Amino acid sequence: MPAPEPAAEESPHQTETAESVPEPSESVTSVAEEATTTPGAPESETQAPPTDSGTVETETDTVATSTPLESVSTSSESTAGTSTEAVPELDVASSTTVSTGNASAGANVVNVSGSTFVNAGGEVVLENEFEPSSGVDLRIASSSFSTGELCAWFACTANGTTTILSSGTSTLLNLLVLSATSGDNHIAQASGSAAILTGDAFVGLNLVNLANLNVVNSQYFIAALNFFQGLTGDIVFPSLTGFFDSILSSGIPNTIELNPETIVTNDLTFDTATGDNQTNATSSSISTGAARNLATVVNQLNSSLIGGASLAIILRITGAWDGDIFGAPEGLTVARGTDGSIYLSASQGGEEHLTHGSVSASTTALIENHAYLGAQTGDNSILNAENAEITTGEALAAANVLNFANQNIIGRNWLTAVVNIFGDWQGNLVFGRPDLWVGERAEAPGSITEGSELVLYFTVMNKGDSPATNAVFTPSLDTNHLELMSGTAGARSLGTLAPGQSVELAYTVRVHAEPGAAIETSGTVAARETDANISDNTDTLVIRTAGGGGRSSVIVLRTGTDRKESQHSVQRPLVVTRATRESVAIGTSTVRQQLTVTNPNDATTTPLDLHDLLRDPEGTVINDEAWALGALAPHEEVTVSYEIGFTATAPT
Predict the structure, then answer these.
(1) Nearest CA to 314 among 425, 421, 205?
(2) Which contiguous run of DSSP H or E holds residue 259?
(3) Is 321 inside any structural domain?
(4) Is the pTM higher than 0.90?
(5) Does some domain include residue 319?
(6) Cα distance between residue 145 and residue 220, in whole Å
(7) How far apart are CA 42 and CA 110, in angstroms?
């Protein structure tokens, strides 16, 4: 869907009526400085089972109506469709201060009527964030509506022959009243000083109407988000890896007959106010917060989308954006509207003609959206006081209305999203996340002494669902005890690592250390993007040189901040295995031991110490080899190798 040009106006009331014609059309209207609709209508949905061939017939005459929500007075926050009034009126006091908290009202509504989903999966995610937000991951966000994972995300195929016959009328009537008030406070008389300090008032709503849709062998993702106190963190959309790969193979209808009629009315009324404050005092001051509204209306009506893919995202940010876009598809275009809105769009053309089956639709969609949004922090008064101060909070309202009606979507991937942010945004817009992982191992001789050579291997892998760009690997070698014989010292550029891609780096080192020394090596990887799990971006290996008894060892320690943050009890016992015999012949010099400790659980262990005990025939411990392993991540293995010497006088 190409980036639309916004229509902007500033008025407390907006009415929009869209009446369809039989020709396919698609429109997006963005109205700045306004807010809009949201209802609580019942749903009517028809979902056909996943199939490659067959006939789907739908006949619907559906009427969905949402009634106004009743007002409820509370002391702090209001839920969808409530009105909050922070404090009652105060009559007379000598010295009085009225301080209110924030008031908020929000609603998220999805109406589904006369729609059929065949081997198609997707989600609708709607959120209002009234508190300061540290980011949102839409891959794991709660859905307002979902048709399930019927085919892999953006990897559906259309095989066989599908015939769709659709007829009927869907009527959606949405009526909604949302109100949040922290103002309307009054001090009638105060002999001394008086102050009224009001909190902010926030109203947010998101409305999605899906009427008379036939979605076959496709994936969709719809999101509408409102952030009222800025955003510090990333917005993570699903990965677009493979988003523009063709998902058509066969079984696409060769005829489409459409007779749609769509009438859409969007009637949006906003009432945001911080003023109308009054004082009657010897000395007084009045300071008011900002009053602002944001609204976006998307109409996608009367069309057939066959094959290909489309992406359309609208960003409305009232402050500054300090961030970037990661994981976007090739060909993404970024445009700015006259009101500062940012439009992201990308598309791949679909099929010009169809090859199998048929679609016949004669449907009518009547959609009416009526909403009132009121956010009030003003209308405060202080009378008959010596000193008076009135300070009001901000009054903010945001609404997103997305209407999809009379559409046939076959073998197509599509993503549509609207994001409103009041204040600044420090973070990135990303599609999926990379998850870089490092694993270290060593090839060492049986006994590690002065002059021994070892090969250190570091494996770097992207376990995430999005490319890691500008990846850099940095080894940390103990240069006081290790001489680098081959390999690149310092940071090493790895370029871009695609999801699932891995590389191995080798370093040959020579040991220069006294007996019994512990030499630590490690490797760390980082990329330009935020990593999904930074705890596995570093791996550490400890080399211990042979001591007086000929003992040496190599210990691999997986390090990460998650071990300090999350300690869980272990459900199953740790598994310890030994790769060498437990009994040896006396006088055979040294024997190499190898112990492997495995955490079989899904939780991180507490910090562990490993002891390998040697006992005499009486059971007395005569040798205790000990290592501090730290905490083991879920299903992690740690291997310890060492040598122990036996003399001819050792007890038998």
Answers:
(1) 421
(2) none
(3) no
(4) no
(5) no
(6) 11
(7) 9
Taking alpha carbons only, the member of 20, 37, 45 closest to residue 211 is 45
* Cα–Cα distance measured from residue 337 to residue 347, given in angstroms and rounded to the nearest whole number: 20
Short-list 296, 323, 468, 307, CA closest to 397: 296
CA triple 53-54-60, angle to 5 deg: 135
Using DSSP, state whether 100 is helix, strand or coil: coil
Q: Are residues 239 and 280 in the same domain?
A: yes
**339 and 469 belong to one structural domain:** no
636, 532: one domain: no
Beta-bridge partner residues of 598? 575, 637
Whole-number pLDDT of residue 599 = 86
Query: What's the pLDDT score for residue 636?
Result: 84
Q: What is the signed CA dihedral for 177, 182, 183, 184, rounded to 10 degrees? A: 70
Task: State the pLDDT at residue 189.
Answer: 86
Alpha carbon distances (Å) from 225 to 119, 146, 245, 437: 27, 17, 28, 32
- 508 inside domain: yes
* DSSP assignment letter at 133: B
Two tokens, residue 99: 């301080």
Give the type of residue at 89: E
Question: How far from 547 is each of 515, 639, 642, 647, CA to CA, in Å?
Answer: 5, 19, 10, 15
Exposed (0-12), middle (13-18) or buried (19+): which is 363, by Cβ within 10 Å? Answer: buried
- Taking the CB of residue 233, how many other CB atoms lie within 10 A of it? 17
- Please state, as a whole number, how many other Cβ atoms lie within 10 Å of the Cβ of residue 51: 14
Take residue 14 and report the two structure tokens written for it: 């907006």
Look at the chain and count its residues: 652
Domain that residue 154 falls in:
13-309+333-377+384-391+405-420
DSSP 616: -
- How many C-beta atoms surround the C-beta of residue 626 within 10 A? 9
- Are the CB atoms for 378 and 273 separated by under 8 Å? yes
Residues 112 and 182 in one domain: yes
With beta carbons less than 8 A apart as the criterion, state whether 214 and 407 touch: yes
Q: Which residues contact 546 (CB under 8 A, 6 or more apart)?
A: 447, 448, 449, 515, 516, 552, 643
Burial of 412-430, coded b for 16+ CB within 10 Å and e otherwise, reads bbbbbbbbbbbbebebbbb
Residues of the chain with pLDDT under 50: 1-11, 17, 19-91, 150-160, 246-252, 352-354, 550, 559-571, 582-583, 586
CA distances from 308 to 1, 176, 217, 249 (A): 11, 37, 12, 12
3-state secondary structure of 563: helix
Query: Cα-Cα-Cα-Cα dihedral of 411, 407, 37, 104, to 10°?
Result: -20
Burial class (CB in 10 A: 0-12, 13-18, 19+), 520: middle
Q: Is residue 219 in some structural domain?
A: yes
Token pair 């290592």 is at which residue? Answer: 627
